[in-house]
Amino acid sequence: MSFVASGSSASNARGSFQGNPPSAARPSPPQSASYPQSANPKRAPRESASAPPLDARSVRGRKPGWKKGPRADAQKTPDPILFQTYFKSVGPRTYAAQLKRAGNGNQYLVFTEGKRDKVTDEVRKTSLYVFSEDFVSFFKLLKETAEYVKAHPLSAEMVQKRARFWQKQNETPGTAKPGNKGA
């Protein structure tokens, strides 16, 4: 192996070496019997060829999911709901909005879409969290979007097409209707 620094020749000792780099020729410092390397808590123990591999539970003495702090073992109570409202869509979706208070006193909004899976009958939820420091910008975004939708409504043809689609979905035997478990 050889290394030559750009702009220098192989005879220049500063930028070139043959064989191993100069750092490999340096001896490692001797280990003290009173302070082995593995006693450093910030350094992970080194694996040797004879030592068994470390599993996830033994690294730094912590188990997966371990948390710091005084509340590590305490059960977290849900944040109190200050206000909530919801509506059921024409289709299989339900939309909800909740205003909650976090443990630090901050308020946040949770927008949730719930949709029941026809095969497993489970409700799949998707949520969006908006914290109080973003309320002004978020409501401005909603207002601008609502104004655009009002200024550019769906065509009458598209409204009728969607109404026919949902009417057909609700009349088809074997499909779950909103609020019903079976045909």
List its traits.
183 residues, alpha+beta, 4-stranded antiparallel β-sheet, 6 strands, 23% strand
**What is the N-to-C succession of helices and strands?**
EEHEEEEHH
Radius of gyration: 32 Å
Biggest sheet strand order reads 3-4-5-6
In whole angstroms, the N-to-C terminal distance is: 75 Å
Counted beta strands: 6
How much of the sequence lies in strands comes to 15-25%
Characterize the largest beta sheet: strand count, sense, and whether it forms a barrel. 4 strands, antiparallel
- Which overall shape is indicated by the principal axes computed on the Cα atoms? flat
The percent range for helix content is 10-25%
Structural class: alpha+beta
- Count of helical regions: 3
Average residue-wise pLDDT = 73
Uncertain residue ranges: 1-17, 179-183
Short summary:
The chain is of the alpha+beta class. Helices cover 20% and strands 23% of the residues.
